[in-house]
Design a protein that fits this description.
The protein is of the alpha+beta class. The chain has a domain of 145 residues. Helices cover 44% and strands 15% of the residues. The chain contains 12 helices and 9 strands. The strands form 2 sheets. A 6-stranded antiparallel β-sheet has the order 1-2-7-4-5-8. A 3-stranded antiparallel β-sheet has the order 6-3-9, with no helix packed on it. Helix 4 runs antiparallel to helix 5, helix 6 packs antiparallel against helix 7 and helix 9 packs across helix 11. It is globular, with a radius of gyration of 18 Å. About 2% of the residues have low confidence.
């Protein structure tokens, strides 16, 4: 079972996209998590390490992690989904909690490196709460207490909104009163990606959301603002390591998660 919601509090909503909990007693096998361009914090409440049996990083053992913004597909074990809780940040939203995240891209890092012993204590408190809704309320409260400075996020939000609407980076910089160099540095420090790479992943995410079994690939390419279907195919193969047709037919238990065929 998945429970997910937006934060209730306005300040937390500015930096967090979704708070979520998963409970699946039958979770087993593997799945591929597709690039999101967003950072997450994840807590394993079952006692199963978040990197257990992960062929990409078998040494990873923590129960609480910061997952940096992803640009590559990552194959993971589904076993921790027996009981998980976490928060997915807005693009740039991890900055007010962790400072610069430019060195976290495509990495999974023990949350204790940032929060010390508080990471383990919060994991224990989340485990002791019985319902998904109570866990999400606790997690939101803990995130809100750690928010330091949202000034950079306010600027980035304006810039990202304009970029998503199709505005050129040069025009966005002029509107924000920033040089291209300063805007790029601010973007990389807080989003973990360059503006151009972020926009590529956003376009991929739009296509991913439209790739239902009945979808026309040419229509999806047009709606996601690719130059043509061939352009979409190249980008999907780059970010998902599979063709749009295969991705369209895949089993996705959660958004951006592709179940292994053998699972």
């Amino acid at each position: 079972m998945l429970t997910a919601r937006e934060p209730d509090k306005e300040t937390t909503r500015l930096i967090v996209d979704r708070l979520w909990c998963v409970s699946d007693a039958t979770a087993d096998g593997y799945e591929t998590v597709l690039p999101s361009g967003r950072a997450q914090i994840i807590f394993s409440l079952s006692g199963i390490p978040l990197g257990e049996n992960d062929p990409q990083d078998p040494s990873l053992r923590p129960l609480h992690v910061l997952q940096g913004p992803s640009t590559l597909p990552r194959r993971i074990s589904r076993r921790p989904q027996i009981s998980l809780c976490g928060a997915s940040f807005q693009p740039g939203g991890a900055g007010p909690l962790f400072g610069s995240i430019q060195d976290t891209t495509d990495r999974v890092i023990d949350l204790a490196r940032f929060w010390g012993a508080e990471a383990a204590r919060l994991t224990d408190r989340l485990r002791d709460v019985e319902t998904h809704h109570a866990r999400l309320e606790l997690l939101e409260s803990e995130i809100e207490k750690r928010i330091v400075d949202i000034s950079a996020m306010l600027v980035l939000n304006r810039g990202i909104e304009r970029l998503r609407s199709g505005a050129a980076i040069k025009d966005v910089c002029e509107e924000l009163g920033l040089s291209a160099h300063v805007f790029r540095r601010l973007f990389v420090m807080n989003v973990g990606l360059t503006p151009k790479r972020y926009l590529r992943i956003e376009r991929f995410r739009i296509a991913l959301g439209r790739l239902s079994p009945a979808a026309s690939l040419s229509d999806v390419a047009y709606e996601a603002r690719f130059s043509d279907q061939s352009h979409m195919t190249r980008e999907v193969e780059h970010f998902a390591s599979m063709t749009p047709g295969r991705l369209r037919a895949s089993v996705r238990p959660y958004v951006g998660h592709v179940l292994d065929r053998a699972s």
